[in-house]
Each structure stands twice: as C-alpha cells, then as structure tokens.
Amino acid sequence: GYRSRAAFKLIELDDRFRLIRKGARVLDLGAAPGGWTQVAVERAGAGGTVVGVDILPAAPVPGATLLQGDLTDAEVAQRAIAALGGRADLVLSDMAPNTVGHAATDHLRIVALAEAAMELALAVLAPGGAFVCKVFQGGSERGMLATLKRHFASVRHAKPPASRKESAETYVVATGFRPGGA
Ligand code: SAM
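# S-adenosylmethionine complex -> structure
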C-alpha cells in the first residue's frame, strides 16, 4: 500500500504525461511520508535512482535514498545532488510550507518554495528532463511560468483527479528541458 493519498496524484500525473521512465534519476522534493517516492521507485524500476528530501523524517523506502533537511538550505541541496550521482531526468516537488494562517505570509512562503524547487530543477536536470511542481491557484507564479517557458519545450497545468476539488493546489508539468533556454 502507499503511505499517502498523495501517491495517487503522482500516479495520475505519470499516467497522463509519462514522466517516470525506466532507469530514470528522480529527485523528489517534499518527500515525506514517502508516497511519491514509492511510486517513483516502482516506475523507475531496478535501474532507476530515486532521492527524496524532506524537513520531516520519513521511514525508509526500499530502493530510494531519503535525506532529511530543508531544501532551501544549499548544503542540503548539494547532498541531494550528490546522492543522485548525475543529472536528474525528473524533478518532482510536492512541497508545501506549514501555513501560519496569515494569507500574505503564507502566500510568500508558497511562492518561495516553488521557486526554490524550480531553481534546483534548472541546475540539476539533464537536457530533455522534466519538472513537476505543486503550486497554488491565486499564487503569483507568473515570473516562474515565464522562466519555465524559456527553459522547457512544454509547460502545462494539471489538477489530478485525486487532488480535492476544493483545494487550491494544482501542478505545473514542464517537459523537454533546454539548459540554455529558448
Ligand atoms: N508527496 C508526499 C507523499 O506522497 O508522501 C507528500 C508531501 S506533503 C504534501 C509536503 C511536504 O513538503 C511535507 O512533508 C513538508 O515537510 C515538506 N516541505 C515543506 N517545506 C520544505 C522544505 N523547505 N524542504 C523540504 N521539504 C519541505
């Protein structure tokens, strides 16, 4: 069984966009409790490499490397890159900050996390790679979208059926990474 209901969101996104190739190197940001990591390990298969990062501890996922730390900490990002052993084919971010209930503050934190995930993706992806990132509608991701469109052949939004309708979360799915931009 999967550790999180969230696992089904990645299954649906992957069924639709064919993101997780056999043998892929996958970086999973905001991995705890490990549902997406489980799906990534299953689908990347024995030749794949899956590295998860989260501030929170998570029980080991066989076949994956889980690192505990804050992704916005450069040292943690470096450890994740080292554990991957090469450029990533896919960077996933299901990260969500702990909200404080103050709308403007929460909003800034959400945008900052998504941007941190994007910056890391731009730094570690192999040409042709893909990036999937949780964003929130009403989020001021315009700057982020412009950057993604420069660096990826295709940028789409998708709300998987397993994501609750009343939730503002949605996912940006960017494929066909071009390191130098368009
Ligand atoms: N995809 C996961 C799964 O299927 O089990 C669920 C992820 S949960 C919705 C979001 C996670 O993002 C939380 O576990 C949280 O600790 C993590 N997170 C938030 N900010 C983070 C940061 N700065 N660095 C690393 N992880 C972070």
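# post-check
The helical segments are 7-17, 35-44, 74-84, 103-124, 142-151.
The longest helix spans residues 103-124.
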